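Hi V.,

You were right to ask for the full record rather than a summary. Here it is.
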Amino acid sequence: MGLVRFLLFVFALWLLFSGVRRLLLPSTLPRRTRQQRKEQEGLLMIKDPHCGRFIVEQEAVRASFRGQVLSFCSTECRDLYTRAHAASRR
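Predicted structure:
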């Protein structure tokens, strides 16, 4: 009988704690919408072949170079990469 009371007491404490937490957290933490969660899950990071920086695929500057489509973090990195590799091919 004592074990059942103890378990009921622990369960009541847990319910009280989770209820208070739910009341307090929404005002302090913003909730993400389902669309925001889907967008964040779909982000793919790719590496810039020139500087090595990782960037979001959707924000990358793309260039076709020697039959490959490469993704860069900026137009500056793209231009530097293509110039350096075009000069080394000569």
